[in-house]
Every structure is written in C-alpha cells, then in structure tokens.
Amino acid sequence: QAQLVESGGGLVQTGGSLRLSCVVSGRTFSIYYMGWFRQAPGKEREFVAGISWSGGSASYGDSAKGRSTISRDNAKNTVYLQMSSLKPEDTAVYYCAASRSGNEYDYWGQGTQVTVSS
Questions:
Q1: Given this model, what pLDDT does residue 17 score?
Q2: What is the number of other CB atoms lying within 10 angstroms of the CB of residue 11?
Q3: Helix (H, G, I), strand (E, B), or coil: what is residue 69?
Q4: Which long-range CB contacts under 8 A does 14-19 form with residues at least 24 apart?
Q5: Chain centroid to CA 76
C-alpha cells in the first residue's frame, strides 16, 4: 500500500498561482507513475497532469497546458503541481494519484480544495 497526502490548496484570485504538493509514503518502490486529477461539482474527474516516478517525463491535460507544471522530488517522495494564471473554472478538488502499472491508478489521496475567485 502507498499513502498519498495532498496539501497546498486554498482560495486564490483570478490570475493567481498555487503550488499543490503530494507526499507519498509506504510502498513507494512500487510506483511507476503519478498523476494529478481534479473534479468540480457536477462534473467528471479530469486528468490534469502526470509524471513518471523515476524518469521525469510529464504529460498534461488540455486545461493545464501552458499554465501548470508537474514535478517530483524523489528524495522527499513528493510530487508538485505548480499552477498559474488560475481561472474560476479551475475551481475543483484536486487529487493526487499513483499508478503501479501506468495503465490505471491504484492509490488516491483525499484531495485538496482549490477555489479561484473572480
């Protein structure tokens, strides 16, 4: 088992920035890929960004391209999501997830709320 704990969410004005953190503990050696997702009220969960645990290659969802950067610090077992130029439509609960295979996500955090005011 691996445990994921997100932090860094909060209330920010339009155009502002936030950095989300996801600390991973437990069976970190089994993790192949990390992802950030978000879910707004009444909407489906959406992929935001992902990064390989060891190699660093990253991918982004359409909503994040050009405005977000995912990174990881293996020494701290932490994955970050730096978000900038935030918009009210970015308001959602942001979740961190870990995949052992790269095909599905096996572990999820509890989520952190991001609210962007207009």
A1: 97
A2: 12
A3: strand
A4: 14/86, 14/87, 14/88, 14/116, 14/117, 14/118, 15/85, 15/86, 16/84, 16/86, 16/116, 17/82, 17/83, 17/84, 17/85, 17/86, 18/82, 18/83, 18/86, 18/114, 19/80, 19/81, 19/82, 19/83
A5: 16
What pLDDT digit, counting tens, does each position of 55-101 carry?
678 999 999 999 999 999 989 999 999 999 999 999 999 999 999 98
What the block records as the tokens of 35 is 């992802």
Q: Which two tokens stand for residue 103?
A: 């095909």
Ramachandran angles phi, psi of 110, nearest 5°: -85, -15
Give 8-53 pLDDT, tens digit per residue.
Answer: 999 999 999 999 999 999 988 888 999 999 999 999 999 999 999 8
- β-strand pairing of 92-99 with 112-117: antiparallel
